[in-house]
Design a protein that fits this description.
The protein has about 270 residues and is mostly beta strands. It has 2 domains: about 210 residues, no CATH class; about 35 residues, no CATH class. It is built from 2 helices and 20 strands. Strands 1, 6, 7, 8, 13, 15, 16, 17 and 20 form a 9-stranded antiparallel sheet that branches. The longest helix is centred in the N-terminal third of the chain and has 11 residues. The protein is globular, with a radius of gyration of 25 Å. This is Lipoprotein. It comes from Flavobacterium paronense.
Length: about 270
């Protein structure tokens, strides 16, 4: 009886149950934040707040730029991320500690496999020094000071981690096929906003940057990307880069997979 090696078994299992990757791409609209270059921007007399939602699960964070000649104080304890009516605090009263410093030494040994052409390398790491001091504790700030003509970024929350399912959205589109559904603000499955409070001098200002998902598209991995030559200042150089076709600052995406056991159409 022939012996089945773990490698052969793995190949057999993966070939019998292949996994395909898909993306759910969300397009958003906003009445308060408008497209500007590679960002979505809100602006008043004192500040410019920029967004780029494009990330896996979406990036609800923002960059706050101080346009004035004075220091602006961003009140994180009075600022919130709100999605579908559920509010989350930007200030969470946390303490961050870095307590261990470890140095390691890595060595490598090499050998030739029984196949003759496959070189195998083994890496071994040994701890050579450890510092277990009390470390430095950093207390989360309630208020963030932003100097004149400068900016600071606040990144705390993903937009969502839940795939939307709908009877008008094919869950697993075939190759060269996409499945898209549009929404109004009232029918959108996701409405979210940042409520941002900042102080300039003696005056407290409140800003609401709101978004809603206006369109959802399901697309297969092979149809989501294209390959382009590396370019800088209109000069194309060596090497190829892979580009997500639908990327934009007013969009974000979630990744999900399909196996042969998945039989759902929607």
């Amino acid at each position: 009886m022939k012996k089945i090696t773990p490698f052969v078994l793995l190949c057999f299992l993966t070939s019998c149950n292949p996994i395909s990757t898909y993306y759910q791409v969300y397009k958003t609209k906003s009445e308060t934040v408008k497209p500007s270059g590679n960002s979505m921007v809100f602006e008043d007399n004192n500040c410019k707040i920029s967004y780029n939602l494009w990330a896996n699960n979406g990036n609800a964070g923002f960059t706050f730029y101080n346009k004035t000649n004075e220091v602006i104080y961003l009140q994180l304890d009075e600022s919130f991320y709100v999605i579908n009516g559920n509010a989350y605090d930007y200030y969470q009263n946390r303490i961050f500690t870095n307590s261990n410093n470890t140095a390691t030494k890595t060595s490598k040994t090499s050998g030739i496999s029984q196949l003759g052409w496959l070189s195998l390398s083994t890496y071994t790491s040994n701890t050579v020094a450890t510092n277990s001091s009390s470390g430095v504790q950093i207390v989360e700030a309630k208020v963030v000071a932003i100097p004149s003509k400068s900016s600071k970024s606040v990144a705390e929350f993903n937009i969502t981690q839940t795939i939307i399912r709908d009877c008008d959205l094919l869950r697993y589109p075939t190759s060269k096929q996409t499945s898209t559904k549009g929404f109004s603000e009232d029918t959108s499955p996701l409405n979210f906003y940042n409520s941002i409070t900042y102080k300039l001098g003696d005056k407290t200002n409140k800003v609401k940057n709101d978004f809603y998902v206006s369109e959802i598209t399901n697309i297969a991995y092979k149809d989501a990307f294209r390959q382009e030559k590396n370019t800088f200042c209109n000069q194309k150089g060596g090497g190829i880069t892979t580009v997500f076709i639908n990327s934009a600052p007013d969009k974000f995406y979630l990744t999900y997979t399909k196996t042969q056991a998945d039989t759902w159409k929607y």
